[in-house]
Amino acid sequence: MDTEAQQTERDRSSPPGSPGAEGRSRFAWAARAAHWLPGGRITLCVLTGLTFLLFLNAFVAQPFEIPSGSMEQGLRIGDRILVNKVAYRFGAPPRRGDVIVFDGTGYFGDADYVKRVVGVGGDHVTCCDTRGRIEVNGRPVDETAFLYPGDSASSVPFDVVVPPGRLFVLGDHRDDSSDSRDHLGSPGGGMIPVGDVIGRADWIIWPYPHWTRLTRPSAYARVPAAEGAHG
Question: Would you list the DSSP string of 5-16?
Fold first, then answer.
């Protein structure tokens, strides 16, 4: 009997518990699934990719199309923005200057909206001072970096205190925006619940010439915290 030849034959396959066998068993489910699916491995790869995209869309990031000119000139009709859905999920609340997407049901209308946060809970927001600027907690805000050219800060005067857990939001194209100013007499006083915020708009992703990252403007950096607020 050729014992040496027999030993060599046995070595060709990995014994139970070896790394190779463990690796094969780990992916055995994928091979079995591919065997039963029409199209085999290609179909499995497509389904896996779609599942991953659905997960991202539901919990991480979601694209939105800009339907109106209320956020011009920064966001134009037809632009696609990528909304960061985890930006506020770990204790960090929306901040003044953030561009957010929110569910306006019961406040603005049965749709999703994109606006800029001007006031957060506790803020005293007024318009306008002697130079036509919005004031937040007594500090004037220079919005020229993002306000639509030729627009004033607001053609409608207002003087509001934002309730805790709410947001006062405005469009950058003030003359073409239905926002918190227009709903001051509606339920909720035009203030958006933080819980209805879908996420923060972080990127313009389409069309390619408009591709850019959306950053928080420095105009609000000197605004003091609301009276009685902490941090």
Answer: HHHHHHHTSPPT
